[in-house]
């Protein structure tokens, strides 16, 4: 068996977070992009390369850590006297859970609020389930919604905001965390597991009651 065949057999299927994207410019060859990247990460760490749709170059590296280092330290490359930007093939997303949202409030109103905080959404808003442990009512949704945004360390997510819709004021709660308790505002557990006395009374003057925030991106989980 040749050295080339042996190397191919040892290759594992890479993940998308090991890939970078560059815009193809003029008559530059694929080799030009591969060599420019290889000069930084070392040739042995470049695994796959190809032209893809929308006039772009996609290059897979040996490890995700190489992608992290490359895009942070070398966001631009100079190829044949032309500057080319480097970006991840998969952009990391951060989830925001919005709780205590009255169902009558349209998604567009919440989306405008999120954009007003300077976030860049990378997914549509969606409802989360109420977590009712009864097969006949498993379809019932909660007063929670979720959206994925591009992470931005310069933005401070407020814990709550007052939203006005149809002449009514609503206080909604926001969190990055997959598990956040609305009773004590701490992470790592949900309200049904909280040992502290509820701080927000169902009889308060809020139009809706706060709801637990625990789910996953692909499918909402139930939290009982």
Automatic annotation (TrEMBL):
MF terms per GO, please?
A: nucleic acid binding; zinc ion binding
What keywords is this UniProt entry annotated with?
Metal-binding, Zinc, Zinc-finger
> Which residue windows does the record flag with biased composition (Low complexity)?
212-224
- Asked if the record carries the keyword Metal-binding, the reply is yes
InterPro entries for the chain: Znf_CCHC (IPR001878), Znf_CCHC_sf (IPR036875)
CCHC-type domain boundaries: 181-194
SUPFAM superfamilies in alphabetical order: Retrovirus zinc finger-like domains (SSF57756)
Region named Disordered: 201-224
Keyword Transmembrane helix attached = no
A Pfam family matched in the record: zf-CCHC
Q: What is this protein called?
A: CCHC-type domain-containing protein
């Amino acid at each position: 068996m040749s050295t080339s065949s042996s190397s191919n057999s040892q290759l594992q299927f890479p993940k998308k977070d090991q890939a970078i994207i560059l815009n193809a410019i003029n008559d530059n060859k694929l080799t030009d992009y591969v060599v420019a990247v290889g000069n930084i990460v070392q040739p042995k760490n470049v695994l796959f390369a190809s032209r893809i749709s929308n006039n772009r170059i996609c290059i897979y590296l040996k490890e995700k850590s190489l992608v992290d280092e490359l895009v942070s330290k070398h966001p631009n490359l100079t190829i044949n006297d032309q500057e080319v930007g480097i970006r991840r093939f998969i952009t990391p997303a951060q989830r925001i859970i919005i709780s205590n949202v009255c169902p009558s409030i349209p998604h567009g109103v919440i989306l405008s609020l999120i954009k007003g905080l300077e976030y860049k959404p990378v997914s549509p808003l969606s409802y989360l389930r109420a977590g009712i442990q009864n097969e006949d009512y498993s379809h019932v949704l909660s007063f929670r919604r979720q959206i994925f945004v591009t992470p931005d360390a310069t933005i401070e997510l407020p814990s709550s905001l007052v939203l006005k819709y149809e002449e009514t004021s609503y206080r909604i709660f926001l969190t990055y965390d997959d598990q956040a308790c609305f009773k004590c505002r701490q992470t790592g557990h949900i309200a049904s597991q909280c040992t502290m006395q509820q701080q927000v009374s169902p009889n308060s003057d809020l139009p809706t009651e706060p709801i637990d925030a625990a789910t996953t991106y692909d499918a909402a989980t139930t939290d009982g």
